[in-house]
Amino acid sequence: MKEGLYTKKLKAERVICSLCYQQCILSPDGRGFCNVRENKKGKIYTKNYQKFREEKIDKIEIVPLFHFLPGTKTFILGSVGNNLVSSTEIEVDNALKELKKITADQAVKRAIKGDCSSITYLTDEPTMFYESMIEVAKNAKSNKLKNILRTNGYLHEKSFSELIKYLHAISFELDSADKETLMQLTNGKLSHIEKSIKMAVEKGIWVEITTILKEDVNDSEGELRKLAEYITSIDKNIPWHVENAHDKKEIFNQLKEEYELTNVYLGLEDTLCPKCGKVVISRKDNIINVKKNVCDLCKKGRVQGTF
Ligand code: SF4
Q1: Residue 17: CB within 6 Å of ligand 1?
Q2: Average pLDDT, the chain
Q3: For residue 269, how far is its CA from the centre of ligand 1 (angstroms)?
Q4: Residue 253 CB coordination number (10 Å)
Q5: Which of 101, 107, 120, 170 is the most exposed place for a label (fewest CB within 10 A)?
Q6: How far is the C-alpha of 264 from the C-alpha of 281, rounded, in Å?
Q7: Amino acid 225: pLDDT
Q8: Is 243 in a helix, a strand, or coil?
Q9: 16 by DSSP, 3-state: which?
Q10: Mind listing the pLDDT tens digit for each residue in 136-168?
Q11: What's the pTM value of the predicted model, to 2 decimals?
């Protein structure tokens, strides 16, 4: 176990953890909401330090990220812990037993050996292995690997601003732009997640957004309209991935036009040039016709992202 970052001692050996927006107060021998941070004699320790369960290599599109080094391989790391989805101590402890120890050095060496261009921090909620992630990310960056995070965006702004110094791309999960619906779906406050997305965009990190639709909860036209409006308000070029939306093609075509969204994906779809309309990134054939962010077919259309 390693001592956790972003903690402050209170009276009677209680400690506040400020790593994420949950801001838990941990009593002696108690744990935070995520169940992977524990108070031992007035100090918070992380139970998942250097413990990983997912160690595999996959295409970067799995994250999903479609406009960041498309077609390349990424080394995926995941651990245990979630700050929005509750689980019992027993569930977390059992899951922790399945994990393997991997140091930052080992992770980076395996990524390089596997011909990966990046390391992706993917599950459960990867910011809950913050201390390990920072170590791997620093090491990866100095070895010229990119760092990618898939997150619910609920890390506190202080810890998040430190972490993003080492990140190159983030895939945020945002299931609604309506505060009540989002609370119902994820127990998260919309304003906190929006703050994280805004900070990442302002710092120049490549951002893509994923929405997972749940029938009769966040799949109405009104809900989708709010999300489209929100994305356009930040940047209409942010790629928006929508899962479980195959029967909603028409609505999305309408939203794309109305809100001028350039990159909406309802699955593993190709990217079209905004000028000539031809396929510039073919995901099935792994063909990329983009040079310096310009369509190589018509030499006019701009395609945002890192290629
Ligand atoms: S990281 Fe865990 S203990 Fe800390 S505030 Fe978030 S949920 Fe609570």
Answers
A1: yes
A2: 96
A3: 37
A4: 11
A5: 101
A6: 14
A7: 98
A8: strand
A9: strand
A10: 999 999 999 999 999 999 999 999 999 999 999
A11: 0.97
Question: Would you list the domain boundaries of the chain?
Answer: 48-272, 273-307
**Position 100: which residue type?**
K
pLDDT confidence of residue 23: 98
C-beta of 23 in contact with ligand 1 (< 6 A): yes
For domain 48-272, give the CATH number.
3.20.20.70
Stated as kind and residue range, the H or E segment containing 151 is strand 146-151
* Best of 14, 18, 37, 44 for a ligand 1 pocket test (most atoms within 8 Å of beta carbon): 37
* Å from CA of 4 to ligand 1 middle: 10
- CB of 33 within 6 A of ligand 1: the answer is yes
In angstroms, what is the span from residue 22 Cα to ligand 1's centroid?
Answer: 6
34 lines ligand 1 (CB under 6 A): yes
The residue whose two tokens read 């190709």 is 270
Query: SS in 3 state form for 158-188?
Result: HHHHHHHHHCCEEEEECCCCCHHHHHHHHCC
Residue 126 reports pLDDT greater than 80 = yes
Burial group, residue 115, by CB count within 10 angstroms (0-12, 13-18, 19+): exposed
Centre of ligand 1 to C-alpha 164, Å, is 19
Give pLDDT, residue 137. Answer: 98
Asked whether 32 lines ligand 1 (CB < 6 A), one says yes
Q: What is the pLDDT of residues 194-211, one digit of tens each?
A: 999 999 999 999 999 999
Of 250, 194, 199, 196, the C-alpha closest to 226 is 194
pLDDT in tens, 31-52: 999 999 999 999 999 999 999 9
Instruction: For strands 118-123 and 146-151, give the pairing.
Output: parallel
Q: Whose CA is nearest to atom 3 of ligand 1?
A: 32
**Cα→Cα distances 31→13, 35, 50, 70, 257, Å:** 13, 5, 19, 40, 48
